[in-house]
Amino acid sequence: MSQFRNPLHVDLILLPLFILQFSLPLSAIRKDVSLQQRHYCRTTVQGRFFLTDDNGHVCDAFSVDPLSRCCPGEGDQFSCQGCNLVSQCCSSYEFCVSCCLNPAMTPKELALKVKIAKPVTAGKYGSVFDFCAGRCRHSSESVVHENAYLSEFHHCFSIPSNSSGCQELKCLRAYSMTGPSSTQLEARLAGINIIIGRQGESCDSACKSSGQSCVPNKLALLNQCEVIQKYMSCKGACLSSIGADQPAEVVEDAPRNLNPGACLYTRSQSSLSCDGSHRHTRRLCPCA
Question: Taking the alpha carbons of 69, 73, 79, 82 in that order, is the dihedral positive or negative?
Answer without folding.
Answer: negative
